[in-house]
Amino acid sequence: MQQWLPHANGDVLAFLNRTWGRGTPHPIDFYVAKIDYLARFFILIWAGLVPTLALFNYRLGNPGNRSPLPELGLTLLYAFLFYLFLIIFGSEESWYPIEKMLNYTGKPPFQHRVLLLFPAQALLYVAPSLSYLHAYIFSQMVAVFVALWAVKRFSALFIREDLAFVGQFLALLMWAPTIKYYTFYDIAIIAVYALALRFLLTHRLLPYLLVFTIGTLNHELTLFLVGISALVLFGQIKLPKLAGFLALQLACYGAVRVLMFTLLPAKSAWEGGKPALNINLFLHQPTQIVSSLGPLLLWYAIAAFGLRSAPVALRWCVALLPCLAVMTFFVGQLNESRQFDAFIPVGVALMVCAIRAKSTATAPQSQLNPTGYTLAGA
């Protein structure tokens, strides 16, 4: 947006900066940059919102029209918007150098989150002339398409299947404010949790276990799925079987983590000093926490409207949120909203439940019982 100002890098902006600076700690170009950021952000959101609402409203009134082409078009649009958000608002930072990650020389805890390194390395093997950044973007687009498919399949548990595409757009809305710097694993976390929770809530425990195990190669916070599965399955299956299933998950998780520490030795599983850093942020830089977590809190407040109509099993999944908050305080940073990406599928599902409750045309085919959700055959 600076290019719209006359002599933006010359005398006019310098004069305005001096004049403005007498009454504010920031020069005027700071605010110009903020306005530019928000303008680009909301233009991208609007580009996805308009066709999403158009198709959603059309299908509400025409439930028999289920051509896959409009949904395919929206999926491609959402993927393109993911890409634009990534390249416009993300950046490579010194603490997460892509080249080092692809060469397995990253620092804890990043060096053991390897799943999305594989497609990037495959691309570099086929086309060695490409840059590390190109390989990174390619790996993220793989993660984006899997995440969009997984979120749609998860959303279809709670709304008519031909309307489940709205969950994809909601996932984009929740993820977009969290992008700050490039990582190989954040988008894949959404895919892993959406797939794992779909299989868990439909009692497809073998596919769930496969996703859980593979997902641990992407990020170690799959450990929280063990607790979520205990809550969801308690009373649904016999206690000995439940205990055995929980033990099997822990064994798979432990095996993957031991494998990672064996192949890529590290002195620690995470970076220390995070509680002190977060306390300092809370006491001396609270605006950083508010600006980072504020958009998420807004989405969580909207998602809360879906709790009343959500099935019991989905309500149990909300327990993931305090787990992520505690983890962030002890081993993460409260000024990084990306720490909560794993909750995106749950938040999306709750919002889909709220939409279903408000749109009576979507209720008959969803066949969800908000007080006694039966998982068999879902």
From TrEMBL:
The keyword Transmembrane helix applies. It comes from Duganella rivi. Keywords: Membrane, Transmembrane, Transmembrane helix. This is EpsG family protein. The chain crosses the membrane at residues 37-60, 72-89, 133-151, 182-201, 208-234, 246-266, 287-307, 313-331. The keyword NADP does not apply.
